[in-house]
């Protein structure tokens, strides 16, 4: 270990020794959180799942007039569309 790591560790231990037990538990919880956070593989590095063709076939539908222009009332915020 480098001297900076040893100094930081010594400082940390000295400060931990002054904390009450309930604060020590909070510190422990936080350290466990950090350990878990930095040991997990980032999502960007995980292998993406393969897509399944036709998995949701028939689950959605599109209106027959989907590609038709919207009425002026829609853009002007007037009445019901």
Describe this protein's structure:
- There is one protein chain.
- This protein is mostly helical and 81 residues long.
- Helix content is 47%, strand content 0%.
- It is built from 3 helices and no strands.
- The chain has helices at residues 3-16, 21-39, 72-76.
- It starts with a helix and ends in a 5-residue tail after the last helix.
- Residues 12-71 form the DUF2281 domain.
- It comes from Nostoc parmelioides FACHB-3921.
Helicity range:
40-55%
Which geometry do the CA atoms define? Answer: elongated
Strand content: under 5%
Q: What is the number of strand segments?
A: 0
Low-confidence stretches: none
What is the chain-wise order of helices and strands? HHH
- The radius of gyration computed from the alpha-carbon positions, rounded to a whole number of angstroms, is 29 Å
Tally of contiguous helical segments: 3
Distance between the termini: 70 Å
Instruction: Give a quick account of the main beta sheet: strands, pairing sense, barrel closure.
Output: none
Mean pLDDT: 86
Q: Which class do the helix and strand fractions yield? A: mainly alpha
InterPro entries: DUF2281
Pfam family, one: DUF2281
Protein name: DUF2281 domain-containing protein
Domain DUF2281: 12-71
């Amino acid at each position: 270990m480098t001297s900076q790591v040893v100094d930081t560790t010594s400082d940390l231990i000295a400060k931990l020794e002054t904390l009450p037990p309930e604060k020590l538990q909070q510190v422990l919880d936080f350290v466990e959180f950090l350990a878990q956070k930095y040991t997990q593989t980032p999502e960007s590095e995980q292998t993406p799942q393969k897509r399944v063709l036709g998995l949701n076939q028939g689950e959605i539908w599109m209106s027959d007039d989907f590609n038709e222009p919207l009425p002026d009332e829609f853009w002007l915020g007037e009445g019901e569309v």
